């Protein structure tokens, strides 16, 4: 599937080829901290399938307690998270942040990871009262 997207302010833009089956939810505490939310949704694809079409993103390298590095790419202007990848062999795959994808409504998560870190109230969200707008 062909997708395109970018950051909130439009400074960083990209095009990519993805498999819509490769969408996942991550409940890890790093994703919670980096998004300011209960989880993050990402679609993984080969690095060669992502092409930047505007300004480059900024890089933040997160080193885990086990020494593993995760590259976190975001817009230097508005701070929108855009991509993640690893180092070494893991750099062959990029995770594209779902919120930055223009076609995100067509991309349904197929799996969840780091479920032991999921906030306990996540299952209650569908039952909360809601309004269509603000």
Describe it for me?
The structure is a single chain. The strands form two sheets. A seven-stranded mixed β-sheet has the order 6-7-8-9-4-3-10. The N and C termini lie far apart (33 Å). The chain is globular. With 134 residues, the chain is mainly beta. The protein has one helix at 29-35; strands at residues 2-6, 13-17, 23-26, 40-46, 50-52, 58-63, 69-74, 81-86, 93-97, 111-113.
Number of strands: 10
User: How many helix segments?
Assistant: 1
Q: Would you tell me the overall average pLDDT?
A: 95
Please describe the biggest sheet, giving its number of strands, its sense, and whether it closes into a barrel.
7 strands, mixed
End-to-end distance, in Å? Answer: 33 Å
By secondary-structure content and strand pairing, the structural class works out as: mainly beta
Give the oligomeric state of the chains in this entry, treating copies of one chain as homo and distinct chains as hetero: single chain
Bin the helical content. Answer: under 10%
What is the chain-wise order of helices and strands?
EEEHEEEEEEE
Task: Considering the chains and any ligands shown, give keywords for the structure.
10 strands; 134 residues; seven-stranded mixed beta sheet; mainly beta; 5% helix; three-stranded antiparallel beta sheet
């Amino acid at each position: 599937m062909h997708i395109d997207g970018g950051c909130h302010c439009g400074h960083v833009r990209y095009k990519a080829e993805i498999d819509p089956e490769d969408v996942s939810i991550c409940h890890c505490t790093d994703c919670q901290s980096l998004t300011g939310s209960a989880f993050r949704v990402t679609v993984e694809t080969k690095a060669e399938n992502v092409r930047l079409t505007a300004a480059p993103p900024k890089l933040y390298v997160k080193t885990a307690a086990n020494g593993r590095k995760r590259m976190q790419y975001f817009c230097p202007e508005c701070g929108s998270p855009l991509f993640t990848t690893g180092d070494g062999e893991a750099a062959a795959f990029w995770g594209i942040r779902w919120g930055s994808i223009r076609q995100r409504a067509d991309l349904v998560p197929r799996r969840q990871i780091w479920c032991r870190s999921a906030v306990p109230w996540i299952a209650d969200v569908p039952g909360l009262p809601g309004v269509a707008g603000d």
